[in-house]
């Protein structure tokens, strides 16, 4: 039986249009999904929208409309944007789907019956942005750290999930499974939260309807709705058919959640404790990404300095945009988005390195080998080094993707492309063809054969990262169907797989250089 792989994006909150940060998280999950599919694993890719909670109710009130219509509008905006961009998700889930609401109520009732939920009176400082009571750690200078607004003092009777009963287990699990949360600094952050007893307690999971009625009603008390995070996290189960769908059995053990660091606590603390209370094992990995800043400002739905992913795709192309996002942001760290940096990346890596290699190799193959992959002459250490590097690169890419380090995978792929460019410079087939010394044709054939084999490996390895470009390159190499049967990483490591005589095609530049007008 083949292995399974289940990847999710965070479900996106529907109070603003999709921005660059959302496109980054979805690009990352999409790349992981595509890679695992090409590795022959049965893959399920879930994205969607998170639609309950106070902020949606606030937007609706300010617009004089209903929360459902606000949710519909933004949920459609996300789904349509992701479809237009070309992400390969299997399902777009909405937390207002009746089926999801049923599953949330089933789980609430089960945890309640198991004595894991308690009714208590609580007084504290409540942040409308966070939709929860804050602890001291959440505040700075009397304001919520995330929302830069003052919380309100409130007293309420509410239902609490006895989350703290699971903290010891969670800390032990994090110690025993160092790659459960990656990169490591976020795991350490969570262990710190668990050690610091003042920081975390039980989780308030209800909101009185007198204050908020936009949510899923508690099955055991109709005066309350469910806290939005408790409802939203459960989408990862609903999406694969919990409790009794066949996909649930197949996929849950391989679950990998891609999230931004701003939602670490719900995913790294609330969620594993909830899963334990439900009687399920934790996910396999939590992949935590950093933030994109734009001109030094955090990109977020609350602060609103959004960059439209669709506009960027239209200007630069989807592959160039996702290449930049995945390559420039070291997984887990923050990075600054500027158009100049994007253009530099496109020009240096995609146009000058990869694009140049493709056009040189295919133009010379047309010119000196009649437009087919030539029959090589004897190979030497230079050719063997390239073949060896292709195999090493395939292994490194596999390892990097499985560690969720796409920037490192891309670094390795482009180092291979760079090495083949240098090999071409050293062999200088154009010079050999011009000088026409004895045996020149065989030497040129060997060089071009080697370059063509390397291009095949590069195209296969790039397919999950540059899903529009890789098929074009494979078509020019005369193997348009290669992705249908390819298995990564082994097929990318296979040398001599492109048969001599295979017809190749020149073509327009894959990534034309972008000229930026200099301002004086
Ligand atoms: Zn807040």
Walk me through what this model shows.
This protein has 520 residues and is an alpha/beta fold. It has two domains: 4-337, HUPs (Rossmann fold, 3-Layer(aba) Sandwich), CATH 3.40.50; 339-493, Orthogonal Bundle (Isoleucyl-tRNA Synthetase, Domain 1). The protein has helices spanning 20-38, 54-63, 67-85, 98-113, 167-176, 184-195, 228-233, 235-238, 246-251, 264-278, 309-316, 318-328, 339-369, 381-402, 406-427, 429-435, 440-462, 469-476, 482-485, 490-493, and strands at 4-8, 12-13, 42-50, 91-94, 117-127, 132-134, 139-140, 143-144, 152-161, 181-182, 203-204, 206-208, 217-218, 221-226, 255-260, 285-289, 292-294, 297-298, 335-337. Strands 1, 2, 3, 4, 10, 15 and 16 form a seven-stranded parallel beta sheet that branches. A four-stranded antiparallel beta sheet has the order 6-5-9-11. A three-stranded antiparallel beta sheet has the order 12-14-13. Helix 2 crosses helix 3 (67-85), helix 5 runs antiparallel to helix 6 and helix 14 (381-402) runs antiparallel to helix 15. The protein binds zinc ion.
Can you describe this structure in just a few lines?
With 520 residues, the protein is α/β, with parallel strands linked by helices. The protein is 49% helix and 16% strand. Strands 1, 2, 3, 4, 10, 15 and 16 form a 7-stranded parallel sheet that branches.
């Amino acid at each position: 039986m083949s292995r399974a792989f289940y990847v999710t994006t965070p479900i996106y909150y529907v109070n603003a249009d999709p921005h660059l940060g959302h496109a980054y998280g979805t690009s990352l999950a999409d790349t992981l999904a595509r890679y695992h599919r090409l590795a022959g694993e049965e893959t399920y890719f879930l994205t969607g929208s998170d639609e309950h909670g106070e902020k949606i109710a606030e937007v609706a009130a300010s617009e004089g409309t209903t929360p459902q219509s606000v949710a519909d509008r933004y949920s459609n905006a996300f789904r349509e944007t992701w479809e237009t961009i070309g992400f390969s998700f299997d399902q777009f889930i909405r937390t207002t789907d009746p089926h999801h609401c049923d599953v949330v109520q089933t789980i609430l009732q089960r945890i309640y019956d198991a004595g894991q939920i308690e009714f208590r009176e609580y007084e504290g400082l409540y942040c409308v942005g966070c939709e929860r009571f804050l602890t001291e750690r959440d505040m700075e200078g009397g304001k919520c750290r995330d929302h830069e607004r003052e919380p309100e003092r409130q007293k309420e009777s509410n239902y609490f999930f006895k989350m703290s009963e699971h903290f010891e287990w969670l800390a032990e699990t994090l110690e025993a499974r160092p790659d459960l949360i990656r990169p490591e600094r976020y795991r350490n952050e969570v262990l710190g939260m668990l050690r610091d007893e003042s920081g975390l307690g039980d989780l308030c999971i209800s909101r009185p309807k007198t204050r908020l009625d936009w949510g899923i009603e508690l099955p055991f008390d109709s005066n309350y709705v469910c806290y939005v995070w408790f409802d939203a996290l459960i989408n990862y189960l609903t999406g694969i058919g919990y409790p009794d769908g066949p996909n649930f059995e197949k996929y849950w053990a391989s679950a990998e959640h891609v999230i931004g660091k701003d939602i670490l606590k719900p995913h790294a603390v609330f969620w594993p404790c909830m899963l334990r209370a439900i009687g399920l094992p934790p996910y396999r990995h939590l992949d935590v990404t950093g933030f994109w800043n734009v001109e030094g400002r955090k990109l977020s739905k609350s602060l609103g300095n959004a960059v439209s992913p669709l506009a960027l795709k239209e200007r630069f192309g989807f592959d160039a945009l996702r290449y930049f996002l995945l390559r420039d942001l070291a997984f887990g760290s923050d990075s600054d988005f500027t158009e100049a940096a994007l253009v530099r990346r496109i020009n240096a890596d995609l146009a000058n390195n990869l694009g140049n290699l493709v056009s040189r190799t295919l133009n010379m193959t047309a010119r000196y080998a009649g437009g087919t992959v030539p029959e090589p002459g004897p190979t030497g250490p230079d050719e063997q080094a390239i073949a060896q590097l292709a195999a090493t690169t395939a292994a490194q890419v596999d390892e990097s993707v499985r560690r969720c380090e796409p920037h490192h995978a891309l670094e390795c792929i482009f180092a291979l492309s760079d090495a083949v460019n240098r090999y071409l410079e050293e062999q200088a087939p154009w010079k050999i063809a011009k000088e026409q010394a004895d045996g020149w044709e065989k030497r040129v054939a060997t060089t071009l054969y080697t370059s063509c084999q390397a291009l095949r490996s590069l195209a296969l390895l790039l397919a999950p990262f540059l899903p529009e470009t890789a098929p074009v390159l494979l078509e020019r190499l005369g193997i348009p169907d290669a992705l249908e049967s390819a298995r990564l990483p082994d097929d990318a490591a296979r040398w001599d797989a492109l048969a001599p005589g295979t017809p190749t095609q020149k073509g327009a530049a894959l990534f034309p250089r972008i000229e930026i007008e200099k301002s004086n």
